[in-house]
Amino acid sequence: MSEPGLKxxxxxxxxxxxxxxxxxxxxxxxxxxxxxxxxxxxxxxIVAIATVFxxxxxxxxxxxxxxxxxxxxxxxxxxxxxxxxxxxWMGLGLSLLFCAASWPIxxxxxxxxxxxxxxxxxxxxxxxxxxxxxxxxxxRDKRFRFIAWRTLAIQLCSGVVAIAAALCGAGLxxxxxxxxxxGALLYFISLRAYPMRWLWCSGLQSIRHIWGYSLYQFLxxxxxxxxxxxxxxxxxxxxxxxxxxxxEKSYRLMMLPLQNLTHVxxxxxxxxxxxxxxxxxxxxxxxxxxxxxxxLVGLPLSLFLYFCSRELVLLCFGPQWxxxxxxxxxxxxxxxxxxxxSSSGSFFQSHNDTRGMFLCGLFTALISCGGYGVCLxxxxxxxxxxxxxxxxCLLSFFQCYWQLYRHSFHRPLQLLFRQLVSPLVLTLLTxxxxxxxxxxxxxxxxxxxxxVKSIASLLIALVFVxxxxxxxxxxxxxxxxx
Length: 482
Prior knowledge:
By secondary structure, the chain is mainly α. 84% of the residues lie in helices and 0% in strands.
């Protein structure tokens, strides 16, 4: 692919994904805001525990197949159909296994409400497994426009149904209905676009063809699952369901900008960068430009979320969720680091180095487990768990890019750190302005305080971008479109 062609496809993919994602921010906030007022923290805690376990089982539905289909461009139609059959059988088996596991899990947490919740969610496992191959074909063929509109339509439909169910008194089952409907719609829409043939085979022969690549992708997904969910499992077990509900709300609110910024870019990166899988030098150059842009957005945003934590939590969820504010303040500080690191996986995948990606995930998991263990012994609170996550994110950032630059790009790490100078200056200026502004607006109405801080942050960013010459990025983007 030529350089202008790569840039045009990347901008097109980012644009359509952004339309769906940023519309999804509004939909998610509305749905979460309504449900937070209709359901209790205990309800969210119960569903959070069930979701942790079903997310673990979902790792086994994929085992790295999606990324391998994108990377291996020489797969035949027969091989793709055989892999699809393998996912069907695996999805059926995992659904039955998860249903059976609901009894010991409910007994472990001494809460019978988990039993019907988990048994209902087991249906979604089959849809998750069955949709893996057609979903991966969308990415392989770079059909980013269709992916974006499909995502937006599913979010809107499932959100409306969830609110209607809550108003009709469905209680905590509201959250289950939303998840099941999203999974079913995603599968049937994808299957209609990429019809699969039914073959009486196990699909193991075609799985072996991609196993060397997908194995480390699967192992990475497994350790990242534990990294992302161990805190919730420990809080629910040793601190309580209500504190877990507060922590889960803080975590999800922090993840909203992270997901809706990085997920605009990362779904586009691997399909496009896989064309450069034999050029370490070019991948390194693209990564440095990517890190600069993500840091310029993510680091100041992280500080903005910190200084606006009280306003955001109370306006989104209501005054009954004020206990979530301290944890959200801490988690917000990790948001910028996670935004920057989010693109690293696509570069590992594109360079055929899923082993290196797995080692990074393993390091993150070990650091996180150690931090959570110390937290339970020294500071068994949701704020302590939030601090543990922040420290783990910082250490993982340095280890990840050391691994990427030393073993994949073979480039000096200083080239990466130079990209962080300008974003760090902007972040410092943002903090200098927002700190006194936060003290000044402490007694203001929440909405007025949030608006003033938002305007101040935006003005700082615009002035800095103009004076520092960062506005040239926009000029480059216009030239890519021509």
